[in-house]
Amino acid sequence: MDNQDFTPKTFWQRPEGTTGMIILAGLLIGGGYLLYTALPVLIGLAANTLYLALMLLALAAIVYMVLDPKMRNLVGYMYKSFMRWLTGLFVQIDPIGILKSYVEDLEDNLSKMNKQINKLRGQMHKLKEIIFNNKKAIEDNLQLASKAKE
Prior knowledge:
Layout: H1 15-46, H2 49-67, H3 69-90, H4 95-149
């Protein structure tokens, strides 16, 4: 088997990535709407110097978290883990679990096929009996016809 052409899927190509995209889009839209509705209050708070200083401090902390690679990785891993957990609630991600459910489906199909095979055997037996009875009736009728000729 040639593994040189194998490239693992990125986070965004896997099922949890799709969930992540939907959640991220929802968060961005919701955050934008929240900022839009809270903007008059923020402008009012910025008029006070103490509140302005606290808001700038909070903004600096957020900018630091965005720019710091360790914090970005930590938040990214937390986000990916949460998306994997969330996706796992309605889609089976575990490869071993997927194979186990596939084997269960195959066993179920095998039992259904065995039932159908048994039904076919029963039908074949009934047809063989009908054929045997018809041949016997033909022979009896031929013998009766030959006796009637004599």
